[in-house]
Design brief:
heterodimer, A: alpha+beta, D-amino Acid Aminotransferase, Chain A, domain 1, Rossmann fold, six-stranded antiparallel β-sheet, 37% helix, 24% strand, B: Rossmann fold, 2 domains, 14 strands
Amino acid sequence: MDLFEYQGKQYFARYDIPVSPGDVAYTVDEAVAAAEMAGYPVVVKAQVQVGGRGKAGGIKIADNADEVRLHAGNIIGMDIKGHLVKRVWVEHASDISKEYYASYSLDRAAKKHLLMLSAEGGVEIETVAVENPDAIVLLHIDPVDGISLETARDAAVRAKIDAEAVDGVADMLVKLYRCFTEGDCDLAEINPLILRPDGGVHALDAKVSLDNNAGYRHPEWEEFRATEELDEREQLARTHDLQYIGLDGTVGIIANGAGLAMSTLDVVNQVGGTAANFLDIGGGANADMMAAALGVINSDENVKSIFINIFGGITRGEEVAKGIVEAMGRVELRAPIVIRLDGTNAEEGRQILLDAGIPESKLVSKPTMLEAARAAVALANGTN
Amino acid sequence: MAIFVNADTKVIVQGLTGGQGKYHGLRNQAYGTQIVGGVTPGKGGTDVATPDGGAIPVFNTVAEAVAATGATASFIAVPPKAAAAAILEAAAAGIAFIVCITEGIPAQDEAKVFNTLLRNYPNTRLLGPNCPGIISPGKCNIGITAGEIAQLPTADGPNVGIVSRSGTLTYQALYELKQRGIGVSTCVGIGGDPVPGTNFIDCLKEFQADPETHAIIMIGEIGGSAEEEAAEFIKANVTKPMSAYIAGVTAPEGKKMGHAGAITSGGKGTAQGKMDALRAAGVKVGLNPTEAGDLMAEIIATL
């Protein structure tokens, strides 16, 4: 789950990482109130999860209430690369001497945590990586050991952080690591991390991505989930623990396991069709989940056929079949189903479908993934 | 021969009294796997009845189970909250081969467990988490694979080793070979999580050394760089012929496709990049699992 900047800053604050004083505002009046609290001059920042906010006019400085009204009025409701701005973050404008970059992520190849630190912040780190790779210090951290203040200090010196900022940055690095690990982040990034003329350092921006698997030990994430911008179907899928991603095609797809679901998309594409979605019902899905998955697909008007591709391991064929029968009894499906059922208890599953007496115009069974894909695509394209 | 496990492997199931542990543990036993015990804290001294009228003893700790049964492998089927501790308990008790099927373990826990094993238990191998397990057809099945979809290997070969990052595509690969009557030496599902205990290279190394394996199928997916690293390894070390398939050719960029690991961003970790790397290493790459199976059948015909 990706956080908005203001949420990232609130999350940082939990781990004592200094951020600019400010508040989130949904209306112009709230923005003015937030500005009065933070103290002028302030920065009014659009809260969207997409880069290039500044260039799009989504970040403005205001010296007084009238200017806050003007800018907040313009920014709230603005469309930035397809993202509607619903809220702004208003914070006290900082005096900036230097801009640095710091982040922690998992290096999957090394299987260690990775600190990236650079004295060249405030620009895209990918750009720095290409144009001036020596300006970035990469440091692997063993998750068992974590990072000590001494190691953090060494990294800051190596990254050519200005001498007066080294202690402050090292302290931030230790706190940010705690946020990254104890806070269960996939990514914790500060860009820019600034040095002020008074010698202090703090986070001027926050990019935080949380690991959904760790949600069970973070009740405080509840408020972040409330603002996640999912479409209706994604929301519906979420409530049933289904992994759903909407796409533009006409073949609705339900598969068990992410790999098989991806592969199903590939095969549909190869035989001339287009997928309407990616939907993984996961391992061990029961009849309820199957019925819910069909409900999600059924709410997509573009779907012309539904391809259910199940290879049971932990998922059992009879549960899949029961779910289909149940869903068909509950709602009128807008499109015919093509099913391919294999693996654990597939025989039982096929028998249940057969016994249910569903007409062939509504459900056909195919023995292989490729044949099922061809049938589903033919139905969707009206070429059968 | 087979890799990692064989007919003599004695296995305990951590979580044998839970829903998944019991269902799959008993299925593994019915397949012929030596399931010699279960571990559930607080339920030591009880047992789990088997369909054939037998009983599997349950212990409170892995250490007790190992002492009583001589088990060298463990099948972990416990919820995500308990999984990290269960893996470390197995390692501390001297288990050499751990299969963890648990899905949804926080990445921070996985990273910590992996590095703890590396440092404190270098002789313990972890397969998974979030993987279907391992099957050496006719000998041993640990995990959630339906045993009947795996073709038995033949004494003289040629037999194929399978290594896959995706659970269901592991079954699909087994199925493709069964359709063509091609024997399987061992099939390993390494799982799609960001920090797998066992990776492609670990398995390729073993398959290359296994006299019963004559060719290898590798199933990868988008995200990360494990396939690219495997390609490098294959180029330098694997002489056995290989076919492969990478799932996610049509995946939209920047979207997480279910697996925590499956995401492409900024043109990195794409299916195309992985396919190119494997082809450059001499691997025949199919565009779907069936094509990978066809390519393997062509390879087998020449052996």
